[in-house]
Amino acid sequence: MSAPIDHGGGVTAAAAAFGGRPKNWLDLSTGINPCPVALPEIPTRAWHRLPDSYLVDAARRAARDYYHSGEILPLPVAGTQSVIQLLPRLLRQRSQFAMTDDKVAVTDDKVAVVSPTYGEYARAFASAGFAVDAVDDIAAIGGQHRLAVVVNPNNPDGRVWPAEALAALHDRMKSANGLLVVDEAFGDTDPALSLAARAQELPNLIIFRSFGKFFGLAGLRLGFAIAPEDILARFEDWLGPWAVSGPALSLAASLLRSDVAAIRRCLDDRSAGLHAALSAAGLRIKGGTALFTLVADIRASDIYTHLCRHHILVRKFDYAPDWLRFGLTPDPAADNRLSAALQGFER
Asked: In whole angstroms, what is the distance from residue 87 CA to residue 181 CA?
């Protein structure tokens, strides 16, 4: 089994190493809206009863309208991580395997993951015995790949691929009986990039959407899968009954039908504040999205440690030691705190 991946959000461990109380740290290590939306009322029955079908149906219809997925009713899941881990099982079920002594032989099917990106995709497939090609562009994905993963916009560099380019990639994958997975976890801030509206026309496409990042409710552990009905039915079967809590379904049904323009304006404002603090410190912005910014600097390790000493946590990368990812600050006071800490870094 491969080693766990170091993700953002480890403020408790950082506080143990550098001091201070976790609640007093400024945690910029994740790409999550730091200004969570006001929660609508959750009916008591959503807490009291097991999630009934009416809650699931309401959330799926709201997601269909929000993502513009046509006749496809997106499947609510307990965070998209829960279905990422099902992808090897799905691919294995679609493939032909030799059987020897009642054991399944390791497949020689290859999976392509446009990289660097969210590390759990490669880890899930490698742990299941699949060969994983980390490719740097969708043009490198070929007929030898039975499944391809593209995160759009990408994490952590914010790279984007136009919908037309991904639709063409889908057609290439389909011609080889392969699947295309497009992770749109950061897609809420730029809906024009999404393939959801074309999902009905693309039968070998699977789209994952995050709920918590945009709405600032990552602790809810909620996401949606958009795919052909047979694939969604398999996911639903494998996840088992009551995979998503009643309160999560209730919030999704309400918030996905709300006016999100104010959320986008808030994120634009917070992103501008972050960029101003980074630029004032002379840091080079390499990329990002409305929810995070990637900085490239040969002093990244020292900057990371310096910020930790000021009880500010950002995301570093073992595969790119000159990168740091900064999540959004929650308000102008936090912008000033970050700016002051960066200004104090010895160049």
From this structure: 9
CA angle 80, 84, 85 (to 5 degrees): 120
311 to 12, 297, 314: CA distances (angstroms) = 11, 20, 10
CA nearest neighbour of 251 among 33, 46, 45, 34 = 46
Q: Provide Rg for the chain, Cα atoms.
A: 21
Q: Is 246 helix (H, G, I), strand (E, B) or coil?
A: helix
Give the separation between CA 167 and CA 150, rounded to whole angstroms: 12
User: Is residue 178 a contact partner of residue 170, using CB atoms and an 8 Å limit?
Assistant: no
Q: What is the pLDDT along the chain (347 residues), one digit of tens a residue?
A: 565 666 666 899 999 999 999 999 999 999 999 999 999 999 999 999 999 999 999 999 999 999 999 999 999 999 999 999 999 999 999 875 433 344 444 456 899 999 999 999 999 999 999 999 999 999 999 999 999 999 999 999 999 999 999 999 999 999 999 999 999 999 999 999 999 999 999 999 999 999 999 999 999 999 999 999 999 999 999 999 999 999 999 999 999 999 999 999 999 999 999 999 999 999 999 999 999 999 999 999 999 999 999 999 999 999 999 999 999 999 999 999 999 999 988 76
Those residues with Cβ within 8 angstroms of residue 40's Cβ, 6 or more apart along the chain or in another chain: 251, 254, 255, 258
Q: At what angle do helices 332-343 and 300-309 cross, to 10 degrees?
A: 120
Angle formed by the axes of helices 229-239 and 87-94, to 10°?
A: 120
- Tokens for 157, please give them: 């560099």
Sign of CA dihedral 293, 299, 302, 307: negative
- pTM for this structure? 0.93
